[in-house]
């Protein structure tokens, strides 16, 4: 019996490693970007029936697991408030160092409000550079203004 | 007597509000992007003598404050591990929800290593959109591979 | 010299107590609901020039304080992650006890997404009841769906 | 052997997903609102014998699980002090941003005391809106005054 | 300018020590029990105008301080989640060791609900005992049942 | 193999629920108050051989479990520093709100020292009241003075 | 105006350093052991009038400070839960490493109960040793047994 | 398969309880003090082959467990930063209350440095006393001075 | 089914202990330094196919485990923010005591930037010394300067 | 009046910045390495009378500040458990990632014990490298073995 979405994430990771499948291949059968598809597999998004079945077929998941993939998960993918993994920590560091800068510049441009993390998309690309290739990430979120009432 | 860089940040915020100056105006006298210049004013980067004096003149800071602007600050701009401010929290949420996704995709593309938060630049723009304007942020960091030894 | 918005909140609280002014009176000069106006005075919303000047006149604030009222504040009104004040704790308890219930029911009705805390309004009323009057709070937030990309 | 109420919640979630049953259907057999019934299934309320048996029949639970549903549970439905799930976090954010506002307005209207989280009810509805449907939540709690003694 | 209730508590403690006044004497002029009166002085209860003026006269407080005594304070009297002071820690230890026992026994006697901490009174007495005097504390709180809705 | 006292507490809870036995019945076979007996079953006190065997017989525990009941347990019955369960939280709130009051009044009456949480007893009773029954708890602990040396 | 015992500790430390006085000299005028006297000066014990005046004379404290020395302080001398100072950390490490050992051995010898930290004394001595001198600390606390009731 | 030293500690506790063996008996076969032997069994020290085999024989442990007893363990015996068990907490309280006192007196006697928690021994004894027996603990650690370089 | 890299670390530790193999022997078959090889086995580095197979053969791991060794792990090897193990704590203490010193000296020599923890190597050696052998650790990390943009 | 060593550190930082003095110049007048001298100025080591006076003269400190420099400080130079400054965080990351590796390798070479953080020295150098200069840090600490007793 599956009793949490985390178990399904574990099954996916395990099958992906044993079969040597890549996230980009999973994204192809899902029919969405590699960013969204990976997040969905890792328990951060809910799939449609069709998407879940496609992933289930590719990774040979059980019907129960496929049913769980269609449920909205309890989100949050990190085990600690401050991430210990160096790659993920760098992103936390960016928030920590540049957080107030982002706040000031968004308010200067848009006024009081936030950049949505829901109506949001992300695109991660390799940027070739003779001094060493770079990771380029474009994040785009709708600006949502606070309203008076 | 100034005894911490935080006091200088307070002075800058105070002067900026009273004089009604914008971050983009400060960036102009600093001669760098608005992202870097704002971060520098908020105590996250060290300025050159020339940059510090330009900011000092614009905001009428004391010589002591100008000297402090040239010192490498103790970085980290947030008062709590999990930020309480909604705009900044959304960025923390992105790390929390997409952290493992970023990790998987960067490793799939580049192998083991990290995206640098030091050899890094950031560009924040308004993206016009009929369904509501968007905040677009491009982040670019050098990929640094772990080495065997 | 005022160096943080918290100082302005302190000034407002102090003047309000000494003058015996009510939040509903402040809301009247602000021209918005009592909920929004109180939040704005307590450092959670930014006022327009007109609103700030009206509050400043009523409470005899300095020009510097009035300038600060128009700046978007660093939000978050509580000194600890788990609030110690019994009235505020009860709200935290509601989130703690009913959090997963709210999540299940909103997803059942709307699918994956969130209820906005930005495009949001709140109305607090006394509900007369022979068994003891009740506090009635209506909260209304736009539903924001996660999008595939 | 069942050794904690959490196991029963897991069983309910698992059966509900496999059978494709909705919370509103469960509420119907429980004979209470969808808010109370969901909270009870998620381990936050104790059911009567009749309610527990109705849920047990619908979801094919064991007798042991049905016995546990009638026990007052150890409440609190969230795994961390600050919730990581974006939907639930927005509620925590409301407490964080509006906490002192709620405190001020309830005290202005009622004097010293609290809004009960026990003698409390909640009603969650979809509010149709051309600019995007809204989630509307009405919360009603008895006001309990502090007494001198 | 007084900007927080804590400053008034400090003034009261300071004046009480310099004048050598006892809590029981303060309770007398307040006209309530020593438990309630002490809690009120320490920033946990709001006084009436008459009570505040009586305390103000006894301890020679300023008019501003007397005004603050009539405001509902932000409650919570301890500087850390787990108290470090041995006397107060023992009470935390009782909650930690006997917490689940209190829960089981109250539910066995009353069903699901809580013992109110608002409609509550407390009486602390010396209990003479040849083996060493004892501190006896009687706590009485209304039982509040959870209601179905 | 039983490897921690927590497992025995789980067995007791499980058997008690399945058999429909009350804490007062357990207290009877233990031969002590319901408060002490419940605490002992929940892993906070060590039983004598006779007491453990009586509980073991009533709840049909294994010999290994009965052996564990006679061992002094690692005490502390709560999973988090600040309890999330509303009934238990109210007790934490009392310590938080009244902690400094208890400290002041005990010191005023007894001088420097503490109220023992070891040489301690507790009695919980229903107090009939036309305005709603009350939970009454009498706590009695020996006063232990600090000594100079 | 002195508003907390911490200020008096600061005054004592400051005067002691400027005058070059030793704790053993202070203990002499207090008339108690160096361990108790130091703890009292550092805000962990309450002095008698005579003791406070003796310390006050030696260190030239104000009358207000001398009054505060006779008040039972809010105890706990460390700024963080886990001490950062290496000397004090070693003591925390001893509790962390040997905590369960102390528990097992005290229970084996005495049964269920604790070693008092109130009816307690401590003696710190230099132990000459050719391989390097040692710090020897003798701690003696009354055993307090848990009682059934 | 044993995958952590904690499992071996569990096995030892379980066997010790079922066989009714005392720590002093274990110390005898180990051939070291009861303090060291207990700490070693509880996963805080590494045993020699001979010691591990002696304990293994007495408690009928498997060869795998005996192999693990000879490995240096990851030390730290407590589940939380601040211990919840009252006996162990009292030791944490001593560090909290007397920590700065220990620091001051060791520095006054020895200069800058620490008392070693590694080159350290401990002896716990019952001290008979007509007013109630006492727990006496002698701790002896080498003083290690900071060196200039 | 293996569902996390931690399980593989457990298998390695278990096999290493039962077979009596040393880290230096593992490093030999891996063909890298003992520092890198140990970190890789403990789940902090990703191995090549060849390295993973060599370790798998030496320790008789399953094919599934060998597949997991080639995956980039979620890094961070400690169970708590502040390590409880005395050997590891001493390293945390060095960061705590010397952290600001390292910062000042690196900035004085190199300007604003960091010492890389990725382009990094470490060499641990025994240093013979008549006063007691020493642990000598050489750490070498590339300096990465912050850049203006 | 100086009431804490932190104030002296602030004075030193302030004077050093205004006068444009380097840590290496301070080390020269102190007569110890730049590592030790910087740590001493930053409140982590105690100076001799002669060293304190030399620093005092160079930075024009008051006699009171010079007296404080000779007192053993309360050590620990970081404001949070996990450092937010990127340079210092990298060192914390090294402990987090390599902590268990350091533990395994030191135990393999030396047996049970620790590397001293007290009988310890550190040397930081620039290492020229065509691919980018490196920071090289040699740390040397005496090995201290656990002893049986």
UniProtKB/TrEMBL annotation, chains A, B, C, D, E, F, G, H, I, J:
The active site is at residues 90, 93, 116. It catalyses: cyanate + hydrogencarbonate + 3 H(+) = NH4(+) + 2 CO2. Coiled coil: none annotated. Pfam families: Cyanate_lyase, CYNS_N. GO terms for molecular function: cyanate hydratase activity; DNA binding. SUPFAM superfamilies: Cyanase C-terminal domain, lambda repressor-like DNA-binding domains. Its EC number is 4.2.1.104. It comes from the Bacteria. Keywords: Lyase. Residues 77-149 form the Cyanate lyase C-terminal domain. Belongs to the cyanase family. NCBIfam families: cynS, PRK02866.1. Catalyzes the reaction of cyanate with bicarbonate to produce ammonia and carbon dioxide. This is Cyanate hydratase. It comes from Alteromonas marina.
């Amino acid at each position: 019996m599956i009793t949490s979405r985390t178990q399904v994430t574990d099954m996916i990771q395990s099958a992906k490693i044993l079969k040597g499948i890549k996230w980009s291949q999973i994204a192809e059968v899902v029919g969405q970007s590699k960013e969204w598809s990976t997040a969905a597999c890792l328990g951060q998004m809910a799939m449609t029936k069709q998407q879940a079945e496609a992933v289930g077929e590719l990774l040979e998941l059980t019907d129960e697991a496929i049913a769980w993939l269609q449920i909205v998960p309890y989100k949050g993918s990190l085990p600690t408030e401050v991430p210990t993994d160096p790659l993920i920590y760098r992103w936390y560091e960016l928030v920590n160092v540049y957080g107030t800068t982002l706040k000031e510049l968004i308010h200067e441009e848009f006024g009081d409000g936030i950049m949505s993390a829901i109506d949001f998309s992300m695109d991660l690309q390799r940027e070739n550079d003779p001094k060493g290739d770079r990771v380029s990430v474009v994040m785009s979120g709708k600006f949502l203004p606070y309203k008076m009432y």
